[in-house]
Amino acid sequence: MTEPNLYSGLPHGLYIVATPIGNLGDLSTRALAVLGACGAVACEDTRVTGKLLHHAGLKKRLIRYDDHADEAVRERLLAMAAQEPVALVSDAGTPLISDPGYKLVKEARERGVNVVSVPGPSALIVALTLSGLPTDRFLFGGFLPVKDKARRDVLAELGAVRSTLVFYETSPRLLDALAAIEAALPGREVAVARELTKKFEECRSGSVADLVAHYTAHPPKGEIVLMIGPPGEQASEDLDIDALLRAELETQKPSQAAARLAKSYGLDRKMLYARALDLK
Ligand code: SAM
């Protein structure tokens, strides 16, 4: 245990404080107390955090920080956190989750600086809980890459994992990402969550074709979480395996067609390969 200090009894250390992702009402009582008691707040953007603190009726020393910041800034924050409570926030949600903080926390732990997490909103959890997709196992993939090949590689790598996949995405890239999912993982159920905790919050799920049709007619705005259901959700007896294989065989070799369908539907690759050879 660390000693309480001048800051209203809050022990010194680095406090990772989650902040709202849209609805200011989601700033927790504990987050408010920690922000109020800390000596300084490390943040991505002083204007964004300044507004949040203003809303909370607080005025604090703000220090701009991200993981690419000068080593000297990190050193300064670590030295401060060894003496007084220092909060780390990001623009929205939980720091370190596709946001800065990893290097700071790693260093703090290595040096024995007290590290405390003050939990709160994170878009990935809000989206997952709304999606109707399985929540027992999920894999958070951060932002999907922008470039086609890198995106294909990530989908091919993660597509075989028996988990719901969760990605951060931006609205201008949504339709491209959906097309890439259909190409890499045909037949999967997907869900798109937008504007979470805000006035126009929505979460839509269905086939890629359903969502492409909807978002072509209603171009999406705002921030987005894109989710892909795990393989093998569809009972194999409901699948027309021959039809799926024939479609794949139009453009691919039997081994590739088998590998792709095995990944998409969680079916046995050897069985698919044997059937693909028969159909060829
Ligand atoms: N650290 C944040 C968290 O814990 O959720 C994530 C920061 S990351 C830089 C920003 C991305 O998170 C956005 O591009 C979007 O994919 C997702 N996101 C953040 N707020 C969101 C919201 N209100 N609705 C939907 N997605 C959101």
What does it look like?
The protein has 280 residues and is of the alpha/beta class. The chain folds into 3 domains: 13-121, Tetrapyrrole methylase, N-terminal domain (Cobalt-precorrin-4 Transmethylase, domain 1, 3-Layer(aba) Sandwich); 124-228, 2-Layer Sandwich (Methyltransferase, Cobalt-precorrin-4 Transmethylase, Domain 2); 236-279, no CATH class. The protein contains 11 helices and 10 strands. The strands form 2 sheets. It has a 5-stranded parallel β-sheet, with helices on both faces. Helix 6 crosses helix 7 (174-184), helix 7 packs antiparallel against helix 8 (208-217) and helix 9 crosses helix 11 (269-279). It is elongated and about 75 Å long. Mean pLDDT is 93; it is low at 1-5. Bound molecules: S-adenosylmethionine.
Termini gap: 69 Å
Task: Name the hetero compounds present.
Answer: S-adenosylmethionine
Strand content bin = 15-25%
CATH architecture grouping of the largest domain: 3-Layer(aba) Sandwich
Q: In angstroms, what is the radius of gyration?
A: 23 Å
**Could you tell me the mean pLDDT?**
93
**In CATH, what is the homologous superfamily of the largest domain?**
Tetrapyrrole methylase, N-terminal domain
Structural class: alpha/beta
CATH C-level name of the largest domain? Alpha Beta
Tally of individual helices:
11
Shape: elongated
Order the strands across the largest sheet as they lie in space: 3-2-4-1-5
- Could you name the ranges where pLDDT drops below 50 across 5 or more consecutive residues? 1-5
Compute the number of strand runs. 10
Q: How many domains comprise the coordinates?
A: 3
**Helix content, binned percent:** 40-55%
The biggest beta sheet is recorded as: 5 strands, parallel
Element pattern in H and E: EHEHEHEHEHEHEHEEHEHHH
